[in-house]
Write a structure and sequence with these properties.
Helix content: 25-40%
Number of domains: 1
Number of strands: 4
Strand content: 15-25%
Shape: globular
Largest sheet: 4 strands, antiparallel
CATH class: Alpha Beta
Order of helices and strands: EHEHHEHE
Radius of gyration: 17 Å
Length: 122
């Protein structure tokens, strides 16, 4: 089993990446808002902890747009890792190019609490 971590730079691609992952067989994906040091230094307000007490919808949207999205999932084997990498690059482009994202794949010795989808009840 492997843990795939992907930091998506362009959040406008999020839905397309999620769909591509699901189409290649990923069962569960966790999505977290995140930011990196470079983006924090570049925009000085990337974390925007200074949102007004009563923020407008525009304040909230602007804050969300400044964040990356970190996706993670657990997959069974190398074949699935390759499928997820291919699916990701089909949406965002070559991950070796700037402003696409960063992906890491880590081997897992154990994982608990995984609930696989089955055809039972369909």
């Amino acid at each position: 089993m492997y843990l795939i971590l992907f930091v998506l730079d362009d959040t406008k691609c999020l839905e397309d990446v999620l769909q591509a992952w699901e189409e290649c067989g990923v069962n569960g994906i966790t999505i977290l808002p995140s930011t990196g040091l470079a983006k924090l230094r570049q925009r000085k307000s990337a974390l925007r902890e200074n949102l007004p007490l009563m923020p407008s919808l525009q304040d909230i949207i602007r804050h969300a747009e400044q964040m990356n999205r970190t996706l993670f999932t657990i997959v069974e084997d190398d074949k699935m890792v390759d499928a997820v990498v291919h699916a990701t690059q089909s949406v965002v482009g070559d991950l070796n190019e700037p402003n696409t994202g960063v992906m890491a794949v880590l081997p897992l010795a154990r994982a608990y609490g995984l609930h696989r989808k089955t055809n039972a009840g369909l």
